Amino acid sequence: MTQFRFAAGAALASVVTMFLLTASAHAAAKDYRFEVVKAQPAGKNLTDVSVKLTHNPDDKPVTGAVIFQTKVDMGPSGMGEMTGKVTPQPADAAGLYHFRTETGMAGTWALTLAAKVQGETDTVRGTVTFDAK
Ligand SMILES: [Cu+2]
Questions:
Q1: pTM of the predicted model as reported, rounded to 2 decimal places
Q2: Ligand 1 centroid – CA 82 distance (Å)
Q3: Deepest of 19, 41, 42, 124, by most Cβ within 10 A of its Cβ?
Q4: pLDDT tens per residue, range 103-125
Q5: H or E stretch including 128?
Q6: How close is the Cα of 33 to the center of ligand 1, in Å?
Q7: How far is the CA of 124 from the centre of ligand 1 (A)?
Q8: CA 116 centroid distance within chain
């Protein structure tokens, strides 16, 4: 009986460990936020959007993240199926990430980003909104 209890306890402990590892990995991705710092018209149907990535626990800007997925759509205006084009521009040392967006109509658009952050196993994802003129 003692041996059985020990085995059950060990199994439970490993389940708890797995759960904690999973929970902390998910918490890591939520420790970040994307914010629009500037959205500037850059010609017909073009808007230059600058986004700041911040690590919430210490409120510090994140530099050197690799943005590997981008998308713009008109979801915030009730037209989620309407998409545009995003061209990432070089990031700067201050932790600002720049994108040129090409949008087919004026209104509020969503920019969705997926990033790899140094030291973070989880992908960091976020969506920001901006106005296209
Ligand atoms: Cu639209």
A1: 0.79
A2: 6
A3: 124
A4: 999 999 999 999 999 999 999 99
A5: strand 124-132
A6: 26
A7: 27
A8: 9
